[in-house]
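Q: I'm building a small set of examples for a reading group on sequence design. Run inverse folding on the following structure and report the sequence directly after it, with nothing in between.
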């Protein structure tokens, strides 16, 4: 089918669903994803993206108080009848798609059809630029964008603002800082310039090759070296140590972070958080998202089973967290536990305390295994 025919089919699907409420959109989604005729003009991935936009628009049409109340009950009121597997998938889809509304973001004024086509284009378009600077910037920005999207919490805790990593608003600001303050300076470094001319970056899969170089390890890694160097240059102590006393505007992203955090009510990063800001590039957003999905599913099975046969054993959720913390690099498992604190009601302060205590016999051992989680726990209000 040509592009015009495809767009026509998308428009028809949008027209059919544009006045439906959330449960009815989910019912149409189930039917469409299993319809052989529909699968002749769109694959499953395309249909999932189309319905994510349609469903998000349906959520925006729903009263915010209704969405909030549903979120406090695992979105049960908005789920249509059906088998448990389908409902669980839809439950977490609603958690993700309602995140913007619950965080107070204004809905896009874009039409549903236009938003669908943009979502499809953004997902399917490979990063293939005609010049190295564009390829470099877009590859690193897209990679960090996925990580921060996977960490963004859906819910909040009363009187406990999100740390920056877990705010749904932080990702856009972090990317803006990358594009203005970090990546252009990195590209002026000698070894990055040599990299730009050492091969043909217009070849297919160049973005994947570049990302592979990022994750090739710490030893003699030019990209990570200049990445860390650039972030370290934002430390005010470096400016005062040289007798300058103040930071040049081009080396001072902190007001940008502070302004956005003030606007949206989260805790901004400070220069003491530079190691964490550096670490974002080293994470794998897809791995984080996959592990979060597994953890959330185990949580449901232990604390909110749909039937007795689905009941997970006592402690299964805690064990799933411990496994994630043990196997994931750069303490990414710690971050999943912190997201769980905001998104999963059973994960309260006492739960965190007991989880940390189970990780070793001494403070030193526990600190080695879960430094990020312990730092977060120690900062919680008593």
């Amino acid at each position: 089918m040509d592009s015009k025919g495809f767009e026509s089919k998308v428009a028809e699907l949008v027209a059919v669903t544009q006045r439906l409420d959330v449960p009815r959109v989910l019912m149409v989604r189930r039917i469409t994803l299993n319809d052989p005729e529909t699968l002749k003009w769109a694959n499953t991935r395309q249909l999932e993206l189309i319905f994510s936009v349609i469903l998000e628009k349906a959520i925006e049409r729903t009263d915010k108080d209704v969405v909030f109340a549903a979120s406090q009950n695992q979105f049960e009121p908005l789920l249509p009848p059906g088998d448990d597997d389908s409902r669980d998938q839809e439950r977490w889809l609603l958690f993700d798609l309602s995140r913007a509304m619950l965080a107070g973001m204004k809905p896009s004024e874009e039409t549903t059809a236009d938003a669908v086509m943009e979502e499809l284009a953004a997902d399917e378009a490979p990063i293939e630029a005609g010049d190295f600077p564009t390829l470099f910037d877009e590859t690193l920005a897209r990679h960090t964008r996925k990580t921060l999207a996977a960490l963004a919490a859906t819910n909040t805790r009363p009187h406990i603002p999100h740390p920056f990593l877990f705010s749904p608003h932080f990702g856009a600001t972090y990317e803006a800082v990358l594009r203005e303050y970090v990546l252009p300076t990195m590209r002026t470094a000698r070894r990055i310039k040599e990299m730009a001319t050492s091969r043909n970056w217009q070849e297919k899969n160049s973005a994947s090759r570049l990302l592979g170089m990022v994750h090739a390890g710490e030893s003699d890694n030019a990209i990570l070296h200049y990445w860390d160097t650039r972030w370290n240059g934002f430390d005010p102590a470096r400016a005062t140590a040289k007798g300058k006393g103040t930071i040049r505007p081009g080396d001072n992203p902190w007001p940008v972070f502070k302004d956005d955090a003030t606007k949206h009510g989260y805790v901004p990063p400070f220069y003491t958080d530079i190691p964490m800001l550096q670490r974002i590039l080293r994470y794998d957003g897809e791995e984080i998202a996959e592990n979060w999905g597994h953890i959330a599913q185990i949580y449901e099975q232990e604390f909110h089973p749909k039937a007795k046969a689905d009941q997970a054993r006592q402690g299964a959720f805690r064990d799933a967290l411990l496994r994630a913390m043990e196997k994931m690099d750069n303490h990414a498992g710690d971050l999943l536990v912190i997201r769980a604190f905001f998104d999963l009601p059973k994960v309260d302060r006492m739960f965190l305390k007991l989880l940390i205590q189970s990780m070793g016999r001494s403070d030193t051992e526990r600190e080695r295994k879960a430094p990020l989680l312990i730092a977060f726990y120690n900062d919680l209000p008593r």
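The chain has 21 helices and no strands.
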